[in-house]
Amino acid sequence: MSTPALAATVDYGPDEAAMQVYLREGEQRAYGLGNRGPIRFNADGTLHADIVDAYGRCGFYIFEGVLEPEELKDIEADFFDILERLPAQKGCAVDAKGRPALGVDCEAPTLCWSKPLGDPFGGTDLANGRHPVKMREPTPAAGAPKEIVYLILGSLQFSDACLRVYGHPQLLAVAAAINGDDFVPFNEALFIKEPGRGASVAWHQDGTTHWGSPSWDQGIHGFNFMAQLFGSTPANGVWVVPGTHKLGKVDIVELVAQAGSERLPEAVPMVCNPGDVAINNRQVLHGSFANTSAQWRVTVNFGFHRRSSVLGVKGGGVHNAPAVYDEDRIHTRSRLIGYAIDARRQRFPDETSFVYQPFLESGENYRWNEASKAGLKDYNLLDLSI
Hints:
By secondary structure, the chain is of the alpha+beta class. It has helices spanning 16-31, 49-58, 69-85, 126-129, 160-166, 169-179, 252-259, 307-310, 327-347, 357-362, 370-374, and strands spanning 36-37, 60-63, 111-114, 148-153, 184-193, 201-204, 223-228, 238-240, 268-269, 277-281, 286-288, 297-305. An 8-stranded mixed beta sheet has the order 1-2-10-7-12-5-4-3. Strands 6-11-8-9 form a 4-stranded antiparallel beta sheet.
């Protein structure tokens, strides 16, 4: 597959040698975990015990070869289109060709900007202060723009191909196996790690609302899928500290202090090929380093919750304004599942579609067309963020 033109790559300066050793050793640790392979189910539709056990032990799993080359080409085409439609610079209402830019007319948070190789969240109060330690910010090459888009929220309104990934029958079956047949959405995003410019994401745990809950367990804050367009390497991928999803709130500041740097010694990278999809428990400690490498990472990111984790719960206020999630909001937000299933059915008619149990019981039948597509604008104002 082709990739966009590369930016000039850079290094970590005085830490470059240590960083390269860390990347190599982390990759070796990652391949020793035994938590990768194709999606497998038992005859009764339950997720294979080997996957359940490895995911429960590590807090993440790499599903290999989920997306076929034909689908990757669709995603790539949408990605190129999205890149061309981004604002010419932050604050600009038009793209480089003078057309109305993507996302500028949205009410919901959409485009997230960072200085090249920056860490926009680390050491700040943003996102409820869940990124307490700032990552190292290498110096980008000369000629880099002042700011770049590294994250696009509400991404399904901008890409039919990403919507179809959201309706992938095997991935939705995994969601049902882990969170129950009545699972519900979380949010969706497109992560863009540009070579020599891609921002870091400081170490954090995703959950906000249920840490002190009497019903807390290792799965209460849900999970994310991370579908990889161009693959994911130690240099540009997400790193995870295995098993931390079972520990409750982790003292990130203390862990970094003990390590002497943000290179946590027990962390491992999610190493993926194009078409692989990682599943990541939202409670596991994870983050990523600034992408000084020559490889792109483009991740189609989307997550799901247990219905019991969100119904009647006041949201954490990270992705949208705090609100109590009632049946109406959950139902309205879940329509994306129905649209995604039908969009995928239209593109891949020979594939057996997933049947979402709540819609089967209600008799609802969602159709993907121009009208439904227009109705997705700002849909992420209703994200179910816990």
